[in-house]
What we know:
Layout: E1 5-9, H1 14-26, E2 30-35, E3 51-55, H2 65-68, E4 73-76, H3 86-100, E5 108-112, H4 126-131, H5 134-145, E6 155-160, E7 162-164, H6 174-183, H7 186-189, E8 192-193, E9 197-198, E10 200-202, H8 203-215, E11 223-226, E12 231-232, H9 233-244, E13 252-253, H10 256-265, H11 272-280, E14 282-283, H12 303-311, H13 320-331, H14 346-351, H15 357-375
Amino acid sequence: MNPKRIFITGASGCIGHYITQALIHHTEHELYLLVRNPDRLKVDLNHRPGIELLRGDMQHIDRYAPLLQTINVAVLTATAWGGGDVFDVNVLKTMQLMQSLDPAFCEQVIYFSTASILDRRNQPLKEARQLGTDYIRTKYDCYSRLSRLAIASRITTLFPTLVFGGEDTGISSHLTKGLPDVLKWINLIRFLKAEGSFHFIHAGDIAQIVLHLIENPPDTAPHLVLGNQPVTVNQIIEEICAYLDKKIYFRIPLSDWLTDLIINWFKIQMSPWDRFCLNYRHFTYENAVSPASFGLTNYCHSITDILKRTLSPESQSDSWETVTKRNAARLGATMTPGGENDAPDSASYLNNFADSEEKKAELELNQFADSQANYQSAENGAAPANNYPDQPNQNGSIDSSIDPSIDENN
């Protein structure tokens, strides 16, 4: 089997690190890593030949159009979490990147969305578009446009749920960073009982799935929710207490009035999306997948595993690298160099690249028309000139919301 040419965005993020590391160590594919800040990339680029670092960002993705024409697989993990460029990066530039791929040459696009835009039946959640953060609304928007692309039949859309990870790479997810702060409150939390459930997954397990998909391209364009089996909030509290040897003598139901009391007491800022999440409670999905779904070994399948990996990784006999190596052997993913490759040389393409102003103008005009149709439709509620304005909370101030199934891509 010939090595593939793989273009990866967001390689310096939490998930991106695991994917890049797995591809470097367990395949001979040619890798093109688009990275804003090379200093954040904690992988060995000299481990083997065939790894090219592209210093740049999604804002200037048009510079890589010739290279993208030669790509077999695109893995798109990069994202903007907010700010003035969130719509441009998460929607327009992402669409432009996929439009630059050659459907006759590219066999697969692995696009990272978020489970927050789906309801419990894995259908688009209207509240995500109406109330979501800038990040969530742009992910909703981009997902709604994918079917229009010439390469739509080759797009595998991944919807990560709650993502842990980073103890192996030094680039931690938001949840892993915040875990110690949560554990400081466990003496109080253990006596509360709350309704709610969700999925979670380790970024290392996401990389196992991506490696599997690259080596086994699907015949259709699947939509996969990434997560272990759903767990309840109460089960999580019990599991944490068991790991920390904390006794639970009684539990007080966290009713609506008590929740409001805690919010007011601690002066917690709540956006409309936060309020929706608080009332929605059960962020569960149908047919969520983990490495075990593909006959592979999970790195972390329980919260206890997450705690062990995060709090005492040195005590683990099976490192992420060990699990990845075992799974790669099962996939037959390790390949030998050689074989003909019909793709033109990327360096010469980049050096000789001349912008096509006519093509760029046509693309920008189409993008502008799309954005106007989507955001200024009276039927959906006319949007202000700013496509994704900050939303005031109940106190009238602006704050950033917490995504209940946030995926740490970049």
